[in-house]
Write the structure tokens for this entry.
Amino acid sequence: MILVRERRCLFSSRYYVYTLEKDHDDWKWVSGPMKATIGENGFAPPGEKREGDGKTPSGIFPLKRTFGYDKTINTKMPFRQATEEDLWVDDPNAPDYNQWVKQGETGAASYEKMRREDNQYKYGIVIEYNTDPVIKGYGSAIFFHVWKGKDSPTAGCVAVSEEDIIKIFEWLDPNAFPLIMMGITD
């Protein structure tokens, strides 16, 4: 499990990622804390995430697929190379809302390019938020990816340093049915 935790300071909040593994009936810490950034407007309370609100959804979500710019990466997880033609639909009115598509295969009015010039998606993990079933307008393209900078918020994703996400890629195992738990904690 990956845990994204908030630590409140006097005038701000800081976010950290920890990795945990189940050991019989107990959870044990594997690594962390790793500094992280989340949506510019913090965590949305459970069930309240909406498209374009700048919030990161709260809850526990599966991690089933990874992506990145290289042809292959050192991970046991299913991996997909992101090319110039790959898009993630964020248009709530499109029939393929919150899905990975190829350019020219969608009529969506808006989408996100999966191969960005700023390298934030050089390594990424799809956070399976609002993917099965998809509810129109409840938020799309929620990823765990490389940050723009340790103090730069995301539009709703979770981001860490490139070094840390590579460690997570190497650690994740689909046979362990990995999850991410996100939300405000004390």
